[in-house]
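Notebook B, p. 112. Complex prediction, attempt 2.
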Amino acid sequence: MTARRLVIGHLFEDLLNLYGDRGNIATLVRRARWRGIEVEVRRLDGTADDARALEDVDIAFIGGGQDAQQISVAAGLDVVGPALVEAVRHGTALLAVCGGYQNLGHRYRSDLVGELQGPGLLDVATDAPSGAPRRVGGVVIELEDDSPIASGGRASAAAAGRPGAERRLVGFENHSGLTYLGLEARPLGRTVVGHGNNGVDGGEGVLAYPGQGGLAGLRVGTYMHGPLLPRNPHLADFLLRAGLARTGQPAELSVLPDRAEWAAHEAFERRWRAEWEESQRRGQSRVGRLRDRLESLVGF
Amino acid sequence: MARSAATRTRDALGVVAARTAGRLTHLAGYAGTSLPGLVAERVAPGIAGRLAADLGPIVLVSGTNGKTTTTLTLTTILRRSGHAVTTNPSGANLAQAVASVLIARADLTGDGLLRPGDRAVFEVDEAALPPLVDTLPVAGLLLTNLFRDQLDRFGETDRIVRTWRPMLDAHPAIPVVFCADDPRLAALVRGRPNARGYGFAARPLAATTGGVLTTGGAVSTAGAVTTDVTTCPVCAAPLSVEWTTIGHLGAYRCGSCGFARPEPWLSVRIVDDRGFDGQTLGFTVTSTGSGAARTDPGAAHSGAADPGAAREEMATVALIGVANAYNAAGALAAASIVGVDLPGAVRALDGVGPAFGRWESLEIDGRRVVLSLVKNPASLDEVTRAGTAADVDAILFSMNDQHADGRDVSWYWDVDPTPLVPGRLVAIAGARGPDMLLRLRYQLLDDPEAELGGFVGLFDRPSAGLDALVARVAPGGSILVVSTYTALLGLRAELVGRGLLQPMPT
């Protein structure tokens, strides 16, 4: 039997590389290779050659960057955007984080960039209102009860002695944009800790299963970086399965010894949950608010 | 400075109120470096500027990396050259903290206590620089570099450039010393007659940047950090690079608009690299050097205008690595604009050692322990480079993400620290420890069942990790601590408690 193969496309690596994005690629590559799957990573920028190369990509990844780089990305998407849409229509799985999440929605608007149109691969639109505070900190989200991301990670979490952990994703957010979902769109999960898409509707990210919206490819968009995949091995495997399925290869993945992964997942969750609860409690009490103010005056 | 009686009274009140506030915060158990400045400013608005007017020439040192070491080096050079120097403790670099230093120095009548020949050197946070330049009578700015940093606090590096440009435009008379190898800084001072650049003479051999994680295990040497600046800061066309030292610092040229690295006024080269024992550096002034620097501000030395002055001056320092070669060059160039000529400044530089926690070295039970600080991709890259080349038996990674570390420390996934690991014992500590372990595993392990070679364990406390390594390293061996800011402060405090290190000055 010949070994299974995957092609991963890293979009605009030079422009969007601000938030540990290479860690997401490394995680996909390692977790595939650890199962004997051959992996090739292709850098894809904004040229006509890159647009053609997208045809062969099983999993496409786009990361985060600064506003100035997002303008360049929007220009690059004028060239490769249609090819990316075509690829996803035919089954390419997509993971978009932070700036890439904003860029691949319908539009991104901010003071500095004005209004950037996106290809609408993700059914979201983003505004960064002037003077909007940056939302910075840990994020914990809960997946839907019947989430295939969770069910795919159950065995691995149980084997590592952390049953139930697969029902959550953890990450770090750092953005001033507020993202709103289309009427038919579903968030990646419900925010338990952190601000998520807009701090109002309780959702974080966006998730479109294969087939939704007439596109055969899985699409995941999220503000969670830090990076996202190393400490969420169930999400990494979910993307790998989608990438394998695109070319009709068997999509089963063996269970890996993920003790270090789930330990990092749990440590991250515990820590940021405690901090979030403390900040909520302080925010509600006058003494707490006073102490916050005093401490910020005094300096840490 | 002549002040009205009313102002004098208010300034005196401000000083008293500020000192009382400072005393109280200390009693409450806080470091409280900012509060006195804040209180004084409330009681006596503008007091910082009035106290500073009595200081003598003030140099402000700012930039992403190297502020603390450069400030200490410049301060040492000036002191050894016979000047009394007022300076701020490391990390107390926001506007109120600088004001606190001025208040601590003033007498109770609000006089700044000037002596002839006095100088002041303040390390200033990048975001705090513009308001301080507006407030204080500044004799010179020393701009070290601009790397991506503290993503959560500033949001974006571009924002610093956007605040510095109008600051420089509003103060055309202030001489600027800048790292000519940084394209963003060179673009900021382009056409400024009173700017003086420093940089490497040529690519230093030691400056092989750490590997970059791209294809999971396959390490490419294309710089992750170099992507900080890929386009021309003047015209936005792609920037071509002849060589780089750290991150994007190096020799660059824009093929489109012709913007290129200005020839540095002061060039540095590494004459002899002795690892953790320091290095010998050579410095040469180029009379044609950058930024039309021949318009000598202040008391410049005659060599600058003399075409025959290209003689190399050498100093041996207990400062490690390429970054510290830059820091030394920056300090020398800045010394030249406040009255110390190059040969004298280089003599004063000889033997200068590290600032607290920056390649600081100590001994525990016969093992050498070296402390290094990482706070962004560029510093991790530099520590990886120097630490990989050095003779090291064990590594302690100590990673936190408290406010002072920058909450968003995702950058340790963008730079590859794993060249430090092979053949060495490894302990990992801090709040981000479990994450750092994943970082190493995903880079290094071909077999998911395998343990990381040389891995000693995960520890909550950095000191526990260090103790575990000390117990396993033979006497005479050495341990490198790679640590974020708060983890380093905590570890340092414990080592001070054990009598192994001197406390940091406050």
